[in-house]
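A student in our group prepared the protein record below, which I am reviewing. This is what I was given:
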Amino acid sequence: ERIARPTRPVIPEPPPPPPPPVGDWKCKPCGTRFDPSPELADTDSVRCPSCNARLGLASDFRADPPNVEKLRARHLKKA
């Protein structure tokens, strides 16, 4: 007669840590960090990669300093 051995519970591996947030801008509607695409024309709208909200024109993101009054995104300070 065969004796069944108790099986050890399988402990799942913890999920990998999320990637660090990247981008110099933060979408005001959803909080996602992003960088506007450099390929956009100045008259193109910048959209959030996460929630697709229209955040402003590419030219306003590229202005120096950025034209934050017209944008629905917040410029993050470099650490």
